[in-house]
Design a protein that fits this description.
With 100 residues, this protein is an all-alpha fold. 77% of the residues lie in helices and 0% in strands. The protein is elongated, with a radius of gyration of 32 Å.
Length: 100
């Protein structure tokens, strides 16, 4: 009786574990590869889904578009100013250097 009860308990635990492992397949069928035993197919499905999920999505409102525009303009102006200062300093250094 103990062996029969132990076997039933092991079968019930195995059934619960498999049901828990397979349950997401019923909801997310796009993750199921065409061949469940092919590692290459599983890998391909995983990377296709992962790259779709990792794709950048940008939702813009008019206010956020204005902020992005003025921010880009501000960055470009700062880069132009810093480049002008750097080139001006190097030109001034060359003019101050004694001629050989």
């Amino acid at each position: 009786l103990a062996a029969l009860l132990g076997g039933a308990l092991i079968l019930a635990a195995a059934y619960a574990a498999l049901r828990f492992a397979i349950a997401p397949v019923y909801r997310f069928t796009e993750w199921v590869p065409e061949s469940l035993v092919s590692l290459k197919a599983m890998r391909a499905v995983f990377w296709n889904r992962a790259s779709d999920a990792a794709r950048l999505i940008s939702i813009r409102t008019p206010a956020s578009a204005r902020i992005a525009f003025w921010g880009a303009l501000d960055r470009a102006g700062a880069m132009a100013l810093l480049l002008g200062l750097a080139l001006g300093r190097s030109r001034a250094r060359r003019l101050r250097a004694p001629a050989p």
